Amino acid sequence: MSMRAVWMAAGIALLSACGAVPGPASGSAVLLAAEPSLRVEGNRIFLAARVQGLATDALLDSGAEMTLVDKGFAAEAGLLAFGDDEVKGTGAGTERVQFAQGVTIAAAGKQLADQTVAILDLTDISERVVGHPLTVILGREIFDAGIYALDVDAGRFQSVAPEAVPAAEPLALSEANGIKQVAITIDGVPVLADFDLGNGNEILLSREFAERAGLLEPANILGTKLGGGIGGPVERTLVRVETLEIGGHVLRNVTAAVSPPGDGADANIGVSVLRDFTLVIDFAGNRVWLEPRA
After folding, report:
1. Are 105 and 50 in contact (CB under 8 A)?
2. pTM: predicted TM-score of the whole model, two decimal places
3. CATH of domain 5-147
4. In which residue ranges of the chain is CATH 2.40.70.10 found?
């Protein structure tokens, strides 16, 4: 569900023309008393949230550079939309988008004030990807605002105090096109992968990387599958990955989906991989801890 730099750059340019633009960590973060629980549907994570005080269940997406709000829910929440631009997500086409500023988002025990959100029609994603109405995709703002422990299978997403992070050595996070990345190895070939909790499907690989890693040999190809997020469906080639290594831990016989040429990062790992671990995620500190589930 990642939103790529091609439209984010356009969005930032539009915002700059229309007024001051808060960055991903703009606004204040106020710690709230209650800690939420997750609702997990397949490999998609939903979290209780409020936008301008209006309650909803939001899709948690660390690969979205900003929070996305369905235009119908935005109107109900009283968001004042401005601008008109075209966005490119992980689908084959584009979508129209507007923006709203000065938005308050409450989720994961925090309240984020003075946020900028994108407003667009999420009907296609609701029907084709999620299977029910989707009002909000909660982006990386929430991850930038704190440190969190995530256990997908236990339905737990909780704040962690800086002094309470694990003593073990973390994995380093880097950043590309507004998305955090982590180093992995696929069939012995190193690659930086988007750390994308909004990806509820297979590992995603670029065609260029898949060719470099020898994954498009006939013996590795499993078939094709329609995928794609914002922008509509796109056909991807399914391939077999013998080993995926992350942080010294090896997963075997993993299925990956290869995107069309020029579409997205070299690799993208989502919930299908990360749910095998309990995680402590620190975007501000550019680090993540992974512990295999017992």
Report:
1. yes
2. 0.84
3. 2.40.70.10
4. 5-147, 163-292
